[in-house]
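Notebook, student rotation project (T.W.).
Task set for the rotation: take a protein with a known small-molecule partner, predict the structure of the complex, and write up what can be learned from the model alone. Partner molecule chosen: NAP. Sequence and SMILES entered below by T.W., checked by me.
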Amino acid sequence: MIRVGIVGASGYAGGELIRLLVGHEGVNITVLVSRTHAGKPVAQVYPGYYGYDLPHFQELSVAELADRCDLLFVAAPSGAAWPWIEDLISMNPEIKIIDIGSDLRLKDPLLYQEWYGYVHGAPELLCESVYGLTELYAEDISNARLVANPGCYPTATILAFAPLVRFGVVRMNSIIVNALSGVSGAGRTVGQGYHFPECNENMRAYGLLRHRHIPEIEQELTAIARIGGHDEAVNLSFTPHLVPLNRGILVTGYADFRDLGVSLETSGLTEVYESFYEGKKFVRILPPAEIPQTKAVAGSNYCDISVRVDERTGRVLVMSAIDNLVKGAAGQALQNMNLMFGEPDDKGLTSAPLWP
Ligand SMILES: NC(=O)c1ccc[n+]([C@@H]2O[C@H](COP(=O)([O-])OP(=O)(O)OC[C@H]3O[C@@H](n4cnc5c(N)ncnc54)[C@H](OP(=O)(O)O)[C@@H]3O)[C@@H](O)[C@H]2O)c1
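Predicted structure of the complex:
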């Protein structure tokens, strides 16, 4: 049994991890950290866990995490993990860590200053960490000690655009993404704009031009383009919107086709996507007659993708849908944990989406 701890266990991403982990046969949850709820049973914070045999929430003790965990998930806000990860590793060099937050994601430490507004104090962690987009980096993840679990918008956006940039089909500086997210994407502790009367029956954009996920998406799509031999950096316009859903992210993206000297059709491009994601069971390439929707992936680890060639404008239209708390957070983290312990990546993740 893998002994697993969660820091940030009382938040939405941490709570979703508990939900998935209790259905995973190879795991023993040993430590659940929540500073606010230390000492309380989990069911007092998440009533759905009445009757489950889980440890009580406790304070953050790095020594205890080192002693009682083979793997630690960190589901805490940005900047909360890097200050003690090095201590944890020095106490237990064998421990594996998956950060669902953003402390291990960006390779250039200066980007933290620019986009997150703080100085990242442990840049060597960024050199070691592997970007945990399971479908693209399974082998590296299998050998990793530190995994940066991708953000929710980046997961949906990168999976949608990866084949296009890998094969150099689009102009790298022409990508435009509009993304919609349900309210759980903002976490459990949020401000006034997220209260029911303010976000129900309402839709609004936020994070205009400066959303923190932009450098992450650009970093990763640029890396994928380079693998394909295309040196141009990806430069992205990205606008997220808050919509009155509990869960779900829907990405609608566009880019200009490069002049390849051949005419592309939707059916042919769909086949390119199918072959790119062949064998990746959590990425479903929908046939041209279907359109991704959040309800079709709710509660599951799927990312549904659909692509169209717009011959009239010379642009591609690509859409993707995920559950932000599953493929966008806890589900992908579990996929990564499975790979890091030599298990099939879908272990504990096979339940079908909820409908309705
Ligand atoms: N929600 C999503 O859809 C989603 C998707 C992908 C990634 N993420 C990322 O996952 C992380 C957690 O998000 P969330 O939505 O679960 O947020 P949340 O609901 O607000 O929960 C945050 C958790 O972190 C703990 N925490 C806060 N400050 C901490 C600190 N300094 N040190 C240790 N623990 C701390 C909180 O508990 P205590 O204060 O009681 O300790 C709480 O359990 C964030 O980095 C977020 O960006 C979220």
